[in-house]
Amino acid sequence: MGLVLPPIEAYHVQHLPIVKAYADTLGIVEGINRVVPTEMAIDPGTIVLGMLLDTLSGRSPLYRLAECFAHPATALLLGKAIAPSVCEDDPVGRVLEQLDDTGTMKFFTACAVRADQVLGVAKR
């Protein structure tokens, strides 16, 4: 009796796992969710991480974000499976409006403070 191994799935993800690791280290998703609370089906931090990864991959403009979330490796990169329909115009637009209402500088400051705490950024 021979050993039968399951098929191996492989995806071309380039540098995105490294970006995801830095985002996890800096707590970007949690930071956004803390600053921009919402009752949506998907948290705003995951949407922003998806937009960040999509932008850094050079794949598509913002109006094609749902296509990016349809990629099989998205669950690995975002930490959870996301239905592409969740990332269509309306939910993403609501997240962007909430970020704007909260103030992008508040979010940026939270990220910068966290980066300093975690990475010990030289301030001189």
User: How many distinct beta strands?
Assistant: 0
Helix-strand string: HHHHHHH
> Looking at the structure, what is the overall shape?
globular
Query: What is the terminal-to-terminal distance?
Result: 66 Å
Number of domains: 1
Main sheet makeup: none
Low-pLDDT segments, ≥5 res: none
Q: Percent of residues in helical segments? A: 55-70%
The portion of residues forming beta strands comes to under 5%
**Oligomer status:** single chain
Compute the CA-based radius of gyration. 17 Å
The SS-based structural class is mainly alpha
Q: What average pLDDT do the residues reach?
A: 81
Number of helices: 7
Report what the structure shows.
The chain has one domain (16-118). Helix content is 59%, strand content 0%. It contains 7 helices and no strands.
In short:
This protein is about 60% helix and about 0% strand.
Descriptors for this entry?
mainly alpha; 7 helices; 124 residues; globular; single chain
Detail the topology: elements first, then pairings.
Elements: H1 16-26, H2 28-35, H3 44-57, H4 65-69, H5 74-78, H6 89-102, H7 104-119
Helix pairs in contact: 1-3, 2-3, 2-7
